[in-house]
């Protein structure tokens, strides 16, 4: 369970710290965010957050609990917690999830398109960097 220091912060201090955190993340590119998170969070925490995000996106796409459980090895209570987040989410949250789902789908389609055979029957692979 997450713990906060016993020395309480004022609301102004909390707001200032969280605003600084969000601003810092907003200024980083993908590579920098990945590096920052790898230093900031443990490997277990990264997997935990990645699974939560996957569950949220899957639920948004009406994937069944059973399919999610089998796919990423999570328990039903974990999925239920993410479902509760979806139930209280606002329109901005849904827009973000929908954007992430569309982005993932377009990256998957680009991958599939890159594997289409060339006219001479050879596979062509494009690496985007």
UniProtKB/TrEMBL annotation:
Under Gene Ontology molecular function, one entry of this record is: sequence-specific DNA binding
**What SUPFAM superfamilies does its record include?**
TrpR-like (SSF48295)
Which InterPro entries does the record match to this protein?
Answer: Trp_repress (IPR000831), Trp_repressor/repl_initiator (IPR010921), TrpR-like_sf (IPR038116)
A Pfam family this chain is assigned to: Trp_repressor
Q: What is this protein called?
A: TrpR like protein, YerC/YecD
Q: What is the lineage of its organism?
A: Bacteria, Candidatus Gottesmaniibacteriota
């Amino acid at each position: 369970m997450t713990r906060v220091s016993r020395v309480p912060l004022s609301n102004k201090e909390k707001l200032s710290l969280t605003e600084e955190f969000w601003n810092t993340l907003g200024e980083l590119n993908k590579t920098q965010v990945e590096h920052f998170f790898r230093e900031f969070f443990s490997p277990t925490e990264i997997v935990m957050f990645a699974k939560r995000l996957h569950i949220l996106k899957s639920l948004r796409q009406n994937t069944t609990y059973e399919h999610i459980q089998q796919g990423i090895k999570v328990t039903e209570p974990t999925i239920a917690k993410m479902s509760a987040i979806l139930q209280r989410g606002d329109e901005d949250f849904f827009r973000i999830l929908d954007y992430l789902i569309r982005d993932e789908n377009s990256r998957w389609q680009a991958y599939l398109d890159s594997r289409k055979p060339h006219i001479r029957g050879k596979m062509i692979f494009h690496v985007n960097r």
